[in-house]
Specification:
Largest sheet: 7 strands, mixed
Radius of gyration: 22 Å
Helix content: 25-40%
């Protein structure tokens, strides 16, 4: 297996660089892009097709057919999710329908499916086929109440149960690693955004975090109660520790945030490095009246409009590259504001502050504007790579490296906090302009 052999070589190099041996490692935690899907041969481990990533829209027609009877929200009561190309269940159905012989091989038990956590654990352990509820809850195939694969949903998408991994908790020993990490327990599994919530130690209902990466993902802990959203959010499993009840979250997913900065760099050539966007943005005092709506593959929460496409509005001859840079950063903050407003409506809980993480939180201009637009403090932790940290925490708890979540809470430290300073009328006028701009991005795809 060329892919896994390459992965093993990279693990060996990392261990050598850190002068570390496998017996120096207490446990392994996995975190992953939750909706990226792969199917592989049970015997050889070879994928039968390239993995389909979360932003891929090839299942659009399939999702439209699934939504014909009962609409886009017909599965929300069971799954907490709308029918959308984002989720991995339709991707699995597409693979079984389009890879020659795949469906027959799946029925005969030759193939296995998983999101990337499952594929990694299977390879690390020499064949343990598992996932956790945070990842399984993103498939459109898991029942939020039972935390099990749902027969009705499997029948709807014509998916054989035997191809699916066993759903285990997010923090337990699944198996022991082989290869360069031989003997180390594989003991933690969290989807990337739930891992960030865990790494930010948002263990109590009402605590929220937002991760700024290629996209933006805000999660609000709702405790052991899953809240059915009526404002375009996702209801998802936050985590489950061992035999304890599952903890749930409301999530707002934004497809394009940091990727918009990459677009300015790679497609338009306005900057050479992503970090230059802040310098360029600070050459102007405001957005010059322009807005960029980055609906490159539709709009995610709270709209869930696959017919939307990107729009740049409000252009005048006054606008220059600095305004483009500022509008790109502001688009991230506006989309986050829309998610926060929806969370307030769904949960009935005011948010006192927002914990932030991910690569874009190094951008002070964006973080200040975010605080101004939300009207609450925005807090960056000392460790901003909280996704990896959360996976480590889950694995460490499983093997007793840390005692409990109270100990993890004491480890969390503030690096910087931004306070809102923008007048309310200015904030609301800017946001009204954004809402108007969004309407211009809709109904582009028939």
């Amino acid at each position: 297996m060329e892919i896994w052999e390459t992965t093993q070589r990279l693990i060996t190099q990392v261990l050598a660089t850190g002068n570390c041996r496998s017996h120096d490692i207490a446990a392994i935690g996995i975190t992953n892009q939750r909706e990226t899907a792969v199917v592989w041969d049970r015997r050889t481990g070879q994928p039968i097709h390239p993995a389909i990533v979360w932003q891929d829209t090839r299942t659009d027609e399939l999702c439209k057919r699934l939504a014909l009877e009962g609409g886009q929200d017909r599965l929300r009561a069971k799954t907490g999710l709308p029918i959308a190309t984002y989720f991995s269940g339709p991707k699995l159905q597409w693979l079984l329908d389009h890879v020659p012989g795949a469906r027959e091989r799946a029925r005969s038990g030759e193939l296995l499916f998983g999101t990337m956590d499952t594929w990694l654990i299977w390879n690390l352990t020499g064949g343990v086929h598992v996932t956790d509820p945070s990842n399984a809850s993103r498939t459109l195939l898991m029942n939020l109440e039972t935390l099990e694969w749902d027969d009705e949903l499997l029948c709807l998408m014509n998916i054989p149960r035997d191809i699916l991994p066993e759903i285990r908790s997010s923090s337990e020993i699944y198996g022991v690693a082989t290869g360069p990490l031989s003997g180390v327990p594989v003991a933690g599994d969290l989807g990337d955004q739930q891992a960030a919530l865990f790494g930010q130690t948002c263990f109590s209902p009402g605590e929220a975090k937002n991760t700024y990466g290629t996209g933006c993902f805000m999660l609000l802990n709702t405790g052991q109660k899953h809240i059915d959203s009526t404002h375009g959010l996702l209801t998802t499993v936050a985590y489950r520790l061992g035999n304890a009840p599952a903890e749930y979250a409301l999530e707002g997913s934004v497809a394009i945030t940091g990727a918009l900065v990459q677009w300015l760099r790679d497609n338009l050539g306005m900057i050479q490095q992503a970090a230059e966007v802040e310098t360029l943005a600070t050459t102007v005092a405001d957005n010059g009246g322009m807005y960029i709506v980055p609906a490159f593959s539709g709009l995610f929460a709270p709209y869930w409009r696959s017919d939307a496409r990107g729009a740049i509005v409000g252009l005048t001859r006054y606008v220059n590259k600095g305004h483009f840079a500022r509008a790109a950063l502001e688009a991230t903050a506006y989309q986050t504001r829309e998610i926060l407003d929806a969370m307030r409506l769904d949960s009935g809980q005011p948010l006192s502050h927002l914990k932030v993480d991910g690569g874009m939180v190094a951008n002070d201009t964006l973080m200040q504007f975010q605080s101004d637009l939300l009207g609450v403090p925005v807090i960056r932790p000392e460790i901003i790579e909280t996704t990896a940290l959360g996976a480590a925490y889950a694995a460490g708890l499983a093997v007793g490296f840390w005692k409990d979540t109270a100990e993890l809470k004491r480890l969390w430290q503030v690096n910087h906090a931004w306070q809102p300073a923008m007048p309310t009328n200015q904030r609301e006028n800017l946001f009204a302009g954004w809402k108007k701009a969004v309407t211009k991005s809709l109904d582009w795809i028939d």
